[in-house]
Design a protein that fits this description.
seven-stranded mixed beta sheet; OB fold (Dihydrolipoamide Acetyltransferase, E2P); Chloramphenicol Acetyltransferase; single chain; alpha+beta
Length: about 400
């Protein structure tokens, strides 16, 4: 029985992916649940596995091609063993006796796209594929040759031209869409980290011993943000058409670095977690990001986001909202500064905070009040325990 293997659902508001790697060729055997194709979106890399054991009879796309949800990636025959490559894994095959034809109508999608995007003369490209067909590698080699080994000179200065990854292209597009759609404003404040640092220093060893996870600052900010979201529900809402949807749950996106770039996995029902549970949840998400094991559900559905640019040394920034959310909190580097305390100048560990918000739904007064609430709770962390 023939089985169509299709592009699965990719996640919230994601309809397109790039084929990062193909693990099987036409004619090869494949076992049930064995990986066939690896897809890459702007949020996650995911695997498409065989639904049954059998043989791959046709591969519809090439590595580097863009595909959409529901498109057929490959066709397999269940229960059969593969022989040596019985079919060329290109959408359009030629017979052995046919004359090599490198017209665009006979190119597979990947080399055709590369040739068109780089304005190459396909007649000058030496095809190394079956029957002289131009492969993706042939097209890429032609691009490199055209660019003189990928290095050009502008005004006698050396430059290097590198094509943006699919991840970076989509991230760039979506961030620009966020700026074009939302009325983004940013309000700033600063927080004295003295008390929360003292609390952490006093109990960090006991905390690790009991909970087997380090006590960091992010858990305090997550808890403070949730308290502020409960006071100012507009920051936890989103716009749908002409409606405002107020969310009575708190799934907090926490921006973390990964080999593919910055990702924002989601800490589910964070309001129900203890400080230890919050730290454990954040650590689990960070490890999954590092190991490339984040799934689509891990990266979708956040109601509010926290980003800590301070770990990279950022002193001040204006974070961009991750739509359809209406707000994002930016944490920054802790730096000692002279501050006036009780009429005296003292050196205090200070952090700048930034709240970017969608002014279509959140008023300036609400944004400032939200940030002040976080400041008050961090400066006196006992209030987090007392819920005041």
């Amino acid at each position: 029985m023939s089985i169509e293997i299709k592009v699965p659902v990719l996640g919230e508001s994601v309809s397109e992916a790039t084929i990062a790697k193909i693990y099987k060729n036409a004619g090869e055997s494949i076992a049930a649940d064995e990986i066939l194709v690896e897809l890459e979106t702007d949020k996650v890399t995911l695997e498409v596995n065989a639904p049954a054991s059998g043989a791959i009879t046709e591969i519809k796309f090439s590595e580097g091609d863009n595909v959409t949800v529901g498109q057929i990636l490959a066709i397999m025959k269940e229960g059969e063993s593969g022989s040596e490559k019985v079919a060329e894994s290109t959408p359009i095959a030629q017979t052995e006796n046919s004359t090599p034809d490198t017209s665009s109508s006979h190119l597979s999608p990947a080399p055709n796209r590369i040739i068109n995007e780089n304005n190459l003369d396909q007649n000058s490209i030496n095809g190394t594929g079956k029957d002289g067909r131009i492969t993706k590698e042939d097209a890429l080699n032609a691009v490199n040759n055209q660019q003189s080994n990928n290095v050009a000179t502008t005004a006698s200065k050396p430059v290097e031209r590198v094509r943006m990854s699919k991840l970076r292209q989509i991230v760039a597009t979506r961030l620009k869409e966020s700026q074009n759609t939302a009325a983004i404003l940013t309000t700033f404040n600063e927080v004295d980290m003295t008390n929360v640092m003292a609390l952490r220093s006093e109990y960090k060893d006991q905390f690790v011993k009991k909970h087997d996870v380090k006590l960091g600052f992010m858990s305090f900010f997550v808890k403070a943000a949730i308290a502020a979201l409960k006071d100012i529900p507009a920051v936890n809402a989103e716009i749908e058409g002409t409606d405002i949807v107020y969310k009575n749950y708190y799934d907090i996106g926490v921006a973390v670095g990964s080999p593919q770039g910055l990702v924002v996995p989601v800490l589910r029902d964070a309001d129900k977690l203890s400080i230890a549970g919050t730290e454990s949840g954040i650590l689990d998400l960070a490890l999954k990001a590092r190991d490339g094991k984040l799934s689509v559900p891990d990266l979708t559905g956040a109601t509010f986001t926290i980003s800590n640019g301070g770990v990279y040394g950022s002193l001040m920034s204006t974070p961009i909202i991750n739509p359809p959310q209406s707000g994002i909190l930016g944490m920054h580097k802790i730096q000692e500064r002279p501050m006036v305390v009780d009429g005296e100048i003292r050196i205090r560990p200070m952090m700048y905070l930034a709240l970017s918000y969608d002014h279509r739904i959140i008023d300036g007064k609400e944004a400032v009040t939200f940030l002040v609430k976080i400041k008050e709770l961090i400066e006196d962390p006992r209030r987090l325990l007392l819920d005041i």
